[in-house]
């Protein structure tokens, strides 16, 4: 009231108007279907791996939360880096022509490796250092090493997505902070862990659907479990063996 100089009643009315303006608009299932039909290329972000894209019916789904799980050393972080590069590419090349938010919980992100992947996979596009610099400037790295930090970061992503024109969100990985903080042998920890994962998944799903962008979260599986599993809300679980 001090800021606006308005009465309590007028401030309440103003808050209601702002809330209505910011709230997601209602849309029918038909409208959602027609949007996808008009611009089918925006439905998926291709991984450029033919076998994987075929299994996923086009790639990593936009507007959906996708979980990628696999044993250590199978290439999950390399996949994250590759997808980051792909999201920055022009739409004409199958990219999303946008920025990337990369939440790193394991300090595994490598800028040098990112540049290597970009130059190796797309040598005809990244022909100058300026293009490589432009790509790296579009990827925003957030090192978050605890569950609280990860959750707080997720809660602030909406503004970041809008201001930075983000087209892909990656978390590498949720399981890392969960393993460090929750002892599964303790019953109380199981409940806290479930609440943390449910809250995080709910927020990420909202962001994916609201901004129609792919959101990918990466998990760890024990070494005894060999396959990589990619699970999206829009597909059944997909499995592929490591090469």
Automatic annotation (TrEMBL):
Keywords: ATP-binding, DNA damage, DNA recombination, DNA repair, DNA-binding, Nucleotide-binding, Nucleus. Residues 41-221 form the RecA family profile domain. Its main location: nucleus. GO terms for molecular function: ATP binding; ATP-dependent DNA damage sensor activity; double-stranded DNA binding; four-way junction DNA binding; single-stranded DNA binding. InterPro entries: AAA+_ATPase, P-loop_NTPase, Rad51_C, RAD51B, RecA_ATP-bd. PROSITE patterns: RECA_2. SMART domains: AAA. One of its GO terms (biological process) is positive regulation of G2/M transition of mitotic cell cycle. One of its GO terms (cellular component) is replication fork. It is found in: Nucleus. Belongs to the RecA family. RAD51 subfamily. Involved in the homologous recombination repair (HRR) pathway of double-stranded DNA breaks arising during DNA replication or induced by DNA-damaging agents. May promote the assembly of presynaptic RAD51 nucleoprotein filaments. Binds single-stranded DNA and double-stranded DNA and has DNA-dependent ATPase activity. Part of the RAD51 paralog protein complex BCDX2 which acts in the BRCA1-BRCA2-dependent HR pathway. Upon DNA damage, BCDX2 acts downstream of BRCA2 recruitment and upstream of RAD51 recruitment. Part of the BCDX2 complex consisting of RAD51B, RAD51C, RAD51D and XRCC2; the complex has a ring-like structure arranged into a flat disc around a central channel. The BCDX2 subcomplex RAD51B:RAD51C interacts with RAD51. Interacts with SWSAP1; involved in homologous recombination repair. Interacts with HELQ. This is DNA repair protein RAD51 homolog 2.
